[in-house]
Write a structure and sequence with these properties.
Elements lengths: L14 E9 L5 E10 L4 E4 L7 H8 L7 E6 L2 E2 L3 H7 L3 E4 L12 H11 L4 H14 L15 H13 L5 E5 L7 H13 L3 E5 L3 H7 L2 E6 L2 E4 L4 E2 L5 E2 L10
Parallel strand pairs: 3-8, 3-9, 6-7, 7-8
Antiparallel strand pairs: 1-2, 1-4, 4-5, 9-10, 11-12
Helix pairs in contact: 3-4, 3-5
Length: 249
């Protein structure tokens, strides 16, 4: 696992948010002067109560929402307009909280190949990439399965395949274990540990997070901060994320 980079001579962040503020119409600000930097090889867990802006943060990074104040840089480049984000989206893969929001093609292969095709790959190359990713995720033989007939766990893995097929440099994973059975949850854990990618993972599944991330962050009062506190549980173990007492499944 990686550790946070504090070296003044370290490379520039790959994601950098400075004084970001965002409010939905008619509601109080959910993000207020939020500042955050992410570096290559970091694997970050983001834990905070529902409604505090975690998914909103992901959508701002992807350019699906635009902040009312602040600056955003991706891979060292300022991004302010839709055309700026369009150039960056192939380098950042977003796994939506609900797999049904990500899957829209009739078959699994069509869904997974859509991203590479949209990025200009030939049909043969897109199919080659898709089959390789499906095989890597333990989904060999799923190519012609009807997407909407898959189980919840299968949909989640196929959704991840659609993201990985675009060969991103960074992943944003929004509640990836939601609704998974134990076997699929274990498979996802193994997949993430094998990937050579940086990622931010939103989850309330502390046991899962402790095995796949090395840094924990939280959001409070609209701002993001690293959580280094320790919290001792009644079943006698401790780990980071001490400011959010919690239970284990």
């Amino acid at each position: 696992m990686t550790k946070k980079i504090n070296n003044a001579n370290a490379p520039a962040p790959i994601i950098e948010l400075e004084n970001i503020s965002f409010a939905y119409p008619g509601r109080p600000a959910v993000l207020k002067d939020l500042t955050f930097s992410m570096y290559r090889q970091e694997r970050i867990g983001l834990i905070a109560p529902n409604g505090c802006g975690k998914t909103t943060l992901f959508h701002i990074i992807m350019g699906l929402l635009f902040p009312q104040a602040g600056r955003l840089k991706l891979f060292g480049n300022h991004v302010n307009h839709e055309r700026d984000f369009a150039e960056m989206r192939g380098r950042i893969g977003l796994l939506f909280q609900d797999a049904d929001d990500q899957l829209f093609s009739p078959t699994v292969l069509e869904d997974v190949a859509f991203g590479p095709l949209n990025m200009g790959k030939s049909m043969d190359k897109a199919i080659e990439i898709s089959r390789r990713i499906l095989d890597k995720l333990g989904l060999k033989g799923f190519e012609n399965r009807i997407t909407f007939k898959l189980s919840g766990g299968e949909k989640r893995l196929v959704a991840l395949a659609t993201v990985l097929a675009m060969e991103p440099e960074v992943l944003l994973l929004d509640e990836p274990t939601s609704g998974l059975d134990d076997d699929t949850r274990t498979r996802l854990k193994d997949i993430l540990n094998e990937l050579d990618l940086s990622y931010i993972l939103i989850s309330h599944d502390f046991d899962f997070m402790s095995d796949v991330v090395s840094l924990f962050y939280s959001i409070k009062d609209g701002r993001m901060f690293e959580d280094t506190q320790q919290h001792l549980h009644s079943h006698q173990h401790c780990h980071a994320v001490g400011i959010h007492p919690h239970e284990h499944g």
